[in-house]
Amino acid sequence: MQPYELKGQGGEAWTRPWWRGAVFYEIYVRSFADSNDDGIGDLPGISSKLEYLKGLGIDAIWITPFYPSPQKDGGYDVADYYDVNPEYGTLADFSHLVDRAHELRLKVLVDLVPNHTSEQHPWFQAALSAPNDPHRARYYFADAKPDGSPPNNWESAFGGSAWSQDKRSGQWYLHLFAPEQPDLNWWNPAVPREFERIVKFWLDKGADGYRIDVASALFKRKDMADRPMVKDPLTGLPSPDLKFKIIDQPEVHDVYRAWRRILNQYEPARVLVGEIFDPSRQSRYILPDQLDMAFALVRAPWGASLWKRSIEVDRHASPGPIAAPSWTQSNHDLIRHVTRLGGGSMGRARARAALLLLMGLPGQVFLYQGEELGLEEANVPPEQRQDPFYIRSGGKEAGRDGCRVPLPWHKGQPNAGFSKAAPWLPMPAGWDSLAVDAQAESADSMLVFYKRVLALRRRLAGMLPNRLKWCPAPEGVLVYERGQLSVAVNFLARQVEVPARGRLLVGSPPLVRHQDGKLTLPANSGAWLDNVGGPDGL
Ligand code: NOJ
Ligand code: CA
């Protein structure tokens, strides 16, 4: 993972930083591995599984927030940015994790949550202590409208008003997420100053960079104006105009420029990954003096033209000759993609084909824990759900617990070997049949398939150009060439044949090659071919 030399098209050499083309793996700390059998994942649990991750073939991990937190939003409500939640371990455990990861040449990204703190953060507690406390200026406190309603009509991402009342002063405070997550006022210089300290803190502890939570939201429009109401095209009812920008103010770029200057003082390169999904906004952030990456989320319904469009939109969102998207299908906020793709054996077949399609593209890849096991969205009984999204919607939204159920490690063991105690979210019956050890021994398992594709990708890395060419293909099929790699995916529910040169590197399910230069692709399948190497290939 040292930077290595590449030759540009004109023969010039440049150094490629470790993260270009890297495969990242998101760890949802509470659900990954539990070292002390209390039913809750933790940092020593992660350390104990680093060999597993190395064996999987990834380059870096991103760990979701592990700070002290009342856990009103899975740790995205941070009470202390400079410590570790005792449920998850200690600062020494973090250092040990980083050291072990680095020995294995794995990088470690920390999740930074700059948009809001927990209501338990000392700043907010001080702010609540008196109506004239100076800490109030670090949040958004405002008076009600003359009719007594909240200061404006902005809505929380979890439903309901984005304002809650501070009973003591009668004023209201802003929270774009849960009421326990008051938004910081980035216009107040104390806020950017504090975050520069936090950024340095974890880099000094060995972190290789950050995933930045709601990265475009830090500054709110200064006039705090109501969102105009427009007619919803689907329901015909009045609804807030989402085109009216309340976040994404130009000042946010100065913050990332300042952070970049800090990161530039560290060697080897440290990275900033912004949680920004809108491709049309990304080119303002992914710049040499700001962020390195944002997420290219592919969640189109299964269909060749929809997937091609989604891929192309993201490819065009990445400016410059060497920037390339960071492909993502799942994370801790989304329904697991095997389920999105139809579930069961069909969902898993499509997920394999989708992996081949995305892994062959130029760019980085972000995997979410458990996708290598083909996990589906779990059905969590309503009384055991914990997500504020579920709770605040009064049960209308299923919430995100179904993708956060702990990982199954061992077949035949209680709680699938995650913990001797009942896990913090219950596992579905039979979850252990998907366990890591069960899949490791089965040649046609999802886990073995992921390892195979990741190993091939690593072998090809550096040999493949950043450009790709879409090739003519029957409707419902996508075929592209990227240097000597050809990728073909059949989205149809029936078998098709496509012309194909070269040697089959990997296929799912294993594919039959016709002798007359045609590849047979069963329903929902994909293949990688070496299109220049001839029979012995790459
Ligand atoms: C995005 C995170 O991924 C999500 O889990 C969280 O609820 C919100 N940001 C608020 O921090
Ligand atoms: Ca634990």
In short:
By secondary structure, the protein is of the alpha/beta class.
Low-confidence stretches: 1-13, 534-538
Main-sheet strand order equals 13-12-9-5-4-3-16-15-14
Estimated structural class? alpha/beta
- Compounds present? 1-deoxynojirimycin, calcium ion
Which percent bin holds the helix content? 10-25%
The biggest sheet amounts to: 9 strands, parallel
Q: What is Rg?
A: 24 Å
Give the overall shape: globular
Q: What multimeric state do the chains show?
A: single chain
Question: If you average the pLDDT, what whole number results?
Answer: 94
Strand tally = 23
Distance between the termini: 21 Å
Q: How many individual helices?
A: 14
The percentage of residues in β strands lies in 15-25%
What does this structure look like?
The chain is α/β, with parallel strands linked by helices and 538 residues long. Helix content is 24%, strand content 17%. It contains 14 helices and 23 strands. The protein has helices at 29-32, 43-48, 50-56, 91-103, 122-129, 190-204, 252-263, 279-282, 304-317, 337-340, 344-359, 388-392, 436-440, 446-460, and strands at residues 4-7, 13-16, 23-27, 60-63, 107-112, 141-142, 163-165, 172-174, 209-212, 229-231, 238-240, 271-274, 293-294, 296-297, 326-328, 364-368, 469-470, 477-482, 485-490, 496-499, 503-508, 518-521, 525-530. The strands form six sheets. The chain has a nine-stranded parallel β-sheet. Strands 17-18-19-23-21 form a five-stranded antiparallel β-sheet, covered by helices on one side. Helix 9 (304-317) links the parallel strand 14 and strand 15 (326-328). Helix 6 (190-204) packs parallel to helix 7 (252-263) and helix 11 runs parallel beside helix 14 (446-460). Residues 1-13 and 534-538 have low confidence and may be disordered. 1-deoxynojirimycin binds at residues 73-74, 76, 113, 177, 213-214, 275, 332-333.
